[in-house]
Write a structure and sequence with these properties.
By secondary structure, the protein is an alpha+beta fold. It has helices spanning 20-34, 41-58, 90-104, 109-120, 128-135, and strands spanning 5-13, 65-74, 77-87, 140-146, 149-159. A hairpin with a 2-residue loop joins strand 4 and strand 5 (149-159). It is globular, with a radius of gyration of 17 Å.
Length: 176
Amino acid sequence: MDRGLLARVEASLRADATLVPTMRDLARGLSERLLDGDEDAPARVAMVTHELLENAVKYALEDAAYLCIEVRAEGEAAVVTITTRNRAAPEHARAVVRACEAMAAEADALAYYVALMRRNAPLEGSGLGLARIWAEGDMTVACEVAGHDLVLSARAAVALSAPGGRGGVETPAAPD
């Protein structure tokens, strides 16, 4: 077993939008258990899971989407990675790559997100969800296209549970 791995949840889902809130709740619960050293982490992880999976389901060419949530210990922090995969139309995959490249060229996540909202809010497929992940979720976003597969990942280091907190991996005290 990988000693740095705290949790890994993988799900292959029908491309059904009604499943997105369930997976968001699962992500929040996992984060509440493992990341209570950062009080905002569960809400951010839930939001990012929702945004990524909602897009994977919405733009899936086939009736399938994949989600993976991984939490790894790295020193005093945890690295959370949320990944989605779906079969996407080439034009959608190109638009996502362009959105990721545009974000990578910017220094200020919030300023970029606000400018994008002003410019594109009413437009579908405008990249607002990806920018929101970066600005409000405080996570980096990466994308990869392999054939028709579009893989989006969001990643951030967050505080592990505080000593005596609800989450983390605790060792029981030795009996007297």
